[in-house]
Design brief:
alpha/beta; 7 strands
Length: 274
Amino acid sequence: MPRPARFRPALSRRARLGATTVAALVAGTAVFGVGQATAEHSVPRTDKEIPNLTQVQDKIKAYYGDTVTADGEHYASPHSNYARQVRGIEAKARAYLSKALARHDRAGKQSGQAKPAIVLDMDDTTLLTYNYELQVGFHYTEESQDKYLAHTDMDPVFGMNRLVNWAHSKGAEVFFLTGRKEAQRDWSVRNLKNVGYGVPLDRRHVYLKNKENPPAYLPCGATCTTVEYKSGTRKHIESLGYNVVANFGDQYSDLSGGAGDRTFKLPNPMYYLP
């Protein structure tokens, strides 16, 4: 889902799908039953080490509670296992933020004290790309993403708009940090507004990747890896007088590199971004 809606490696979409499955298996969170293929080598020695792509896609659809409309559009179900897992993560985040933001209030908002902030990735953290992925058959291209985003709003990740608005009402500054390219800014902001993110969405609060004119605070410039780009931007946000109390993302590369008191990983079995 989007990136370079988040910055994407030069792998085919199907290759990314396979890489995700391999990563899950290696981590001990296999999605296959007893007796099915497992991956043990970075370069498979036989076909038996490679998960069957069709079966993986079927499991992804089942996990998201694939719902097909009369005109053939695919959407995730709010009653799916995906939605239930997301709600559990959001509940933990809300409990944590309640305490973290209350601590800031008890400190009396002393002069010079860093203001609490939360940083959120966009694709599959705040906006759900499932419909787009099904439209393109899990085969991402910049062209197809541009065409989709220009005319279509992605649904919010279940409950994330409510969590974000609540955190903002409790005193957290909200920043969106995405690998989407700068040219997609207007579409992205429109989408966030239209699906209920009622927080400031100006350039101070929404960061997109600008390879043509990278900001001076990123020493790596146009060559930043995802981790360098995201952690460097969080450090920049903190340099403006904020303390990132929570960082949300669906990829581990969204969360690595420091500059954040606590991280919250949203589920995403559709692709892997290093």
